[in-house]
Each structure stands twice: as C-alpha cells, then as structure tokens.
Amino acid sequence: MIIVYGLKHTLAPRKQQIMQAIYDCLNMQLDIPPRKHTLRFIGLEREDFFCPEGRTDDFIVVEINLMQGRSEDTKKRLIKMLFCELEQRTDINAIDVEITIKEQPPHCWGFRGMTGDEANDLAYSIYR
Known about the structure:
25% strand, four-stranded mixed beta sheet, alpha/beta, single chain
C-alpha cells in the first residue's frame, strides 16, 4: 500500500504522473507487476499540512508499505529512483519529496483471504 500526501491544489493535477512514476519504479526496482499495489492520494488544505522549512507548495510525502525481505541496497535504489523519476515526470524537485518505506513481516499482511506468509502465488519475490 502506498500513500501520497500533499497540498490538494498542487497534488491533484499531478496524480496520474505520480502514480505512474511510483508504479514504474516498483516494477523496475522490486519486480512488482504494474498496478499491484493500492495507491491513495491524500490532498490536504494548507492549514492541515505543515511542511518542513525551505520546502515549496510542491512538497509531497510518499509512504510505501512493503512486506519485509528486500535488501537495504534494493530499498535505497528504489528511493533514489523515485526521486529522479518524480522530478523528471512531475517537475517536483527532490528537496520537495520525502519517502518512507515501512516494512512489516509477511504474517502481518492480509489479502485475497490469506496472510502474506501463506501466499505462495506472488508473481514477484519479496527477498531481493
């Protein structure tokens, strides 16, 4: 699951480009098939979204929830690729992007009526 937070007025017109950049990076770096993750956009009003000093109205926060198992290098490559792709595709400078990867053990995931550790039919490996 992925959540993107930002100011409503700057996030809304870029949703499609942000979505595609994230899905493409997940596919290239983690071998996750396109559109296999839930992606939510939360557009906030200025009074509900306090950005760090020195950021612009383009500031976004990207939270990526994954099952544990990927290597540190794989996650670092994903983060760096996201910075590059978001800047190229949406003109959001890397200074205006914060990315957090949150990991949980597979048994803490539930989908298609089973837990993540029971799923033996994933089209990708969580151990890369």
